[in-house]
Amino acid sequence: MPITDEMQRVIMEGGTEVDIQKMAYQEGMVDLRRAGLLKVMSGITSLEEVLANTND
């Protein structure tokens, strides 16, 4: 994911991990678990596989 001007601002202003994560989600980032769940819904993989290989 490229760093946008807004993300750079949050980082440079000393944003916390939560601030950076919130900005990333606002900019369309999809975390690994969510991407896996989308693949489960598409029939590409199993829920067990996603849960075994991702964190909450």
TrEMBL record:
UniProt family annotation: Belongs to the GSP E family.
Coiled coil: none
Protein name: Bacterial type II secretion system protein E domain-containing protein
Pfam families given in the database record: T2SSE (PF00437)
InterPro entries given in the database record: P-loop_NTPase, T2SS/T4SS_dom
All residue ranges annotated as the Bacterial type II secretion system protein E domain in the record: 1-51
